[in-house]
Amino acid sequence: MSASDFIRSGVVIEAQPFPRYVLEPAAWAEMAARLPGQPTLTLTALWADTTHIHALFTDEAEGDVLTASVPVADGSYTALSPARPAAAWFERMIDDLWGHTAQGGTDARRWIDHGRWGIAHPMAPKPEPAGGAPEPPEFLPVEGDDLHQIPIGPIHAGIIEPGHFRFTAAGETVARMEVRLGYTHKGTLLLMRGKSPRIAARFAARLSGDATVAHSIAFARAAEFASNTEAPPRAVMLRAVMAEIERIANHLGDLGAVCNDAAFAFALARFGLHREQMLRAASALFGHRLMMDCVIPGGVAVDLDPAGLPVLHTALDAMMKEMPSLTRIYDDYASLMDRVVGTGRVSRALVDSFATGGYIARASGRRVDARAFPSYPPYDALGVLAPTREDGDVDARLRIRLDEIGDSVRIIRTVLANLPDGPLTVALLQTSGEGFGWAESFRGDVWHWMRLDGGLIASAFMRDPSWLQWPLLESAVLGNIVGDFPLINKSFNCSYSGVDL
Fold first, then answer.
1. Which of 262, 270, 231 is nearest to 439 (CA)?
2. Crossing angle for the helix pair 233-261 and 212-226, nearest 10 degrees?
3. Which residues pair with 167 in a beta bridge?
C-alpha cells in the first residue's frame, strides 16, 4: 500500500470539497514511513487542534488532495519531518501553540514561542503558566576554520517586518544562515475561535497585509464550503479582478525593490510609479488601496465603482506600453545582470522536496499554480499561463514576475468584459461543517481550513505560502557573499507575519 492508500483507509470525516481521513496512531506512523516511496504526494500544510494533528497533502500527478488526521496520544504523534522536511517548522509551531510533540522530529527547538509569553501552549485545552526566564535562541552549529557570526535583525534599517537572520561566514562567504521568526505573532487562530466567519474574516485579511485579497478569498471559500453556501457569480468575478490587481502591484514593487538593491534606482522609480498607479486604481474601483475587507464570506463587501474603470485601464495601458522598454533596459544593464544572474540559486530538487509554490518554484522549473490545480472559479474557465524558468536564481525569479504581469492583465480585461450582473453577497447558512479554501496569492498557494459548530468557528488554520519558502532562502544564500543577502531576500519576499500567525 502507498501512503495515499493508508490515508484513504482511515475513517472518513465529511469535509468540503475534500474528505478528511482519521487514522489510528499506528496507521499514521505507517503512512509516514511510506511517504519516501511516494515523492509526488507533497506536504502542503500541517496543523493541529486540541485533540488531533492534521496533514494536508496534494498530488498533482494524480490530481489528488488528501487530508489525514491522527488523534494525539499522550501528548505526542509520529513526526513527518524525517520524510517531508517542510514539516519541521509546522511541528515546532504545533508544539508551541498546542503542546503536541512530534516524536522523531528533525527539529525540536521553539519556533513562535520565544519564552516571553505569560502562558505556555495557549491553544491547549488547559494552558499553563510559562515557567522560567527566556533562554537565548539556539542556532545550529557550523564546523570549520576562521568562521564568524553576523546577527541581523529583528529590527531592520527599512520599514519592513521584524525577523532575525543569523549568518555564519568565512570571510564574506555565507557558510550557514538561519531564520528566526515569531516576532509578529498575533494569536490569530485563537482570536478566531467562537466568532462567525464574517467577523473572523478581518483577522484573515490581516494575516499578511500585502496578500490580503488572496487570504480573504481562501478564507471565504473555506467558510462557504463549511456552510454549504455558494458565492454569487458577480462576486466570484470581482474577486478575480481584485486578486490580479494585487498580484500586479506586488510584482511591480518587488521588481523595483530588487533592482534598487543592486543600485539600479531608475528601475525602482519606474516600477514604483506603475505600482502606485495600480494602487490608485484599486482605490478608485473598490475604495481601498489594498482592497482590504473587500472580500467576505458569501461574496464581496463592495461593488466596483464604474468611475474607477478608466483609472484602471489607463494604468494598465501605461504599464504595458512601458514594460518592453523596461525589460530591455534590464537586459542591457551589464552591472545589474552581474548582480542577479547566478545569485541565490535554488535547485529544482530542493523546490520539489519542500513542495514550494509561487514564483520561487516556477523560477526553478516547478510548474504549480493553485489557479490551475486544484483550480477554482473563475480561473477554471479563464486558464492561467503559469510560466516557468530553469535557472532558479534572482534573475529567474524577476523574469517570472515580468511574465506573470502580462497574464494578469489579460485576466483582468477578460473578466471585466464578461462581468455578470446580480447580487454581491449571500448569507452563510448557520450550520455545522468543515471546509477547505485555497487561492493563488502573488507569492504562491494559500490554504485555509475551518470547522464550524452552529455557524461559529470551532477551529481554523491558515497556511501562507511562505511556510514552504523561508527554508529555501536559508539554502539560497549559501556560498554567496553576505552583501548579496538583501538582493536574494527581496527576490524571495517571504511574509514574516504570514507564518507568525
1. 231
2. 150
3. 150, 177
Residues near 448 by Cβ (< 8 Å), separated by ≥ 6?
Answer: 204, 215, 218, 219, 221, 222, 436, 437, 438, 460, 461, 462, 463
Neighbours of 346 (CB within 10 A): 27
Q: Bridge-partner residues for 450, per DSSP?
A: 435, 460
Domains within the chain, CATH numbers bracketed: 3-129 (3.30.460.80), 188-467 (1.10.645.10)
CA-nearest of 70, 75, 81 to 95 is 75
Residue 211 has pLDDT above 80, yes or no: yes
- Angstrom CA distances, 37 to 67, 82, 210, 349, stand at 18, 13, 38, 16
Counting residues of the chain whose pLDDT is more than 90, the rounded percentage is 90
Q: Which residues of 165-185 are buried (b: 16+ CB within 10 A; e: fewer)?
A: bbbbbeeeebbbbbbbbbbbb
Q: Find cell 473555506 and name the residue.
A: 222
Q: What's the distance, CA 271 to chain centroid?
A: 24
Predicted TM-score (pTM) of this structure: 0.96
CA dist., res. 241 & res. 133, Å (int) = 49
**β-bridge partners, 445:** 440
387-422: per-residue pLDDT in tens? 999 999 999 999 999 999 999 999 999 999 999 999
Residues 293, 201 contacting (CB under 8 angstroms): yes
Q: What is the DSSP letter of 97?
A: H
C-alpha cell at 204: 484573515
Kindly state the average pLDDT of the residues 370-387.
Answer: 95
> Could you tell me which residues come within 8 angstroms of residue 306 by beta carbon, excluding any fewer than 6 positions away?
none
Three-state secondary structure call for residue 350: helix
